[in-house]
Amino acid sequence: MIIVMRKGATKEQCIALEERIREAGLEPHVIHGTERNVYGAVGDERVITEQFFEVCEGVERVMPILAPYKLASVEVKPEKTAIQLGSSLIGGQRIGIIAGPCSVESRAGIIEAAQMVKEAGAIALRGGAYKPRTNPYAFQGLQEEGLEYLAEAREATGLPVVTEVLSPEGVEIVAKFADVLQVGARNMQNFLLLKALGNTQKPVLLKRGMSATIQELLFAAEYILSAGNPNVILCERGIRTFEDHTRNTLSLSSIPALRERTHLPVLADPSHGTGHASLVGPMSKAAIAAGADGLIIEVHPHPEKALVDGAQSLNPQQFIQLMKELKPLAQAVGREM
Ligand code: PEP
Ligand code: MN
Prior knowledge:
Elements: E1 2-5, H1 11-23, E2 27-32, E3 37-42, H2 51-54, E4 59-63, E5 83-85, E6 88-90, E7 96-100, H3 107-120, E8 124-126, H4 144-157, E9 161-164, H5 171-177, E10 180-183, H6 191-198, E11 204-207, H7 214-226, E12 232-236, H8 254-261, E13 266-268, H9 270-274, H10 277-289, E14 294-298, H11 316-332
The chain binds phosphoenolpyruvate and manganese (II) ion (MN).
């Protein structure tokens, strides 16, 4: 249920409404507007009618939320959400580029990558310390040591760091070092992980599962939001199809489709979305044209030596060139970079 308070409703009226919402077995989530507060009353609302809240003092309007995901939906919050990432915003007017290697491989390597992507205009550094690998014998990441190197790279450059967390037990340690906690495609429906992330206030970069629908992605976001963390960034990273000339099929139409359904920022990952460095530039441009709020791109100082995902990683020259080419494109679609 969406409950819109009157302009000038008092604090006492708001508190009374929150109690009424809880009495109905629902959870109140308030959106503080400049002129009035709007409440999302979230939970199983089948047994409750609009009248139950209309009688409360200070209430102007009550409407059911039609989308099955509630807090993620534009019905609850029509204006876009922008999330602070270091000194930048993701989801505002500016397109934000997050870049770095697939995995943290060494202290010197991640610091070199951080300096390079910063110089080129990235707003955050990516790098996996815990890697979810298909092959159990493949490099699993430097783990805690990798987190320490990421923190050093942030120290050296001022760039916030984005890194993956694999399990609910890992949330505490990753949150201690990282600025944004990434949920990988393979974990999009790890509901215990999503709930654990809902208990922090750190921004979460939630990647679409490779066989997940848009609605399932929004339900995954809803797990985090409903557990109390409003800072969710969605990421389209490609889905599995019959096509095998690319690693995944970057589902670009999901970007405007998500825009129609949610206020949350939407990024695209053209690296995992294609699997080939030569396709990253064109798909980066296409994603921005489709309305993405930013990109997460794999960049490696020496892709030929990368321990993970070298084939899809841009080298520094390619990344610098792409950043130059994205600027006018962002302007052409009414954004800045
Ligand atoms: C990654 O970004 O490092 C990654 C593993 O991506 P995905 O979860 O989208 O495969
Ligand atoms: Mn990768």
